[in-house]
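Check the record.
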Amino acid sequence: MRKPRTLVPIPRDLAIAIDKVAGHRQRATFIISLVEREIRRREQREALREAAGSWKDEDHPELAGGADKWVREMRQESIKRFEEVERHRESE
């Protein structure tokens, strides 16, 4: 399948700078990469804008003491479960 071509005039100095960074005959690849990255960045920013306000503190009381405290508690529970499993194995 043929790729569509788009002519985008750019200043000569910019073309020279791109060639220095991108390498010989890699201008189009370099520009495409930058455009794809910028589109993903803008899509992500839009998704973040749309999601703003969807998190409600009252829906997550377990995090009232802070996320770091909650993570430490969850890790401690995992350690306790592991120790219980090990004790059970040893008693068999």
About this structure: Helices lie at 12-22, 27-51, 67-91. Residues 12-51 form one domain. The radius of gyration is 27 Å.
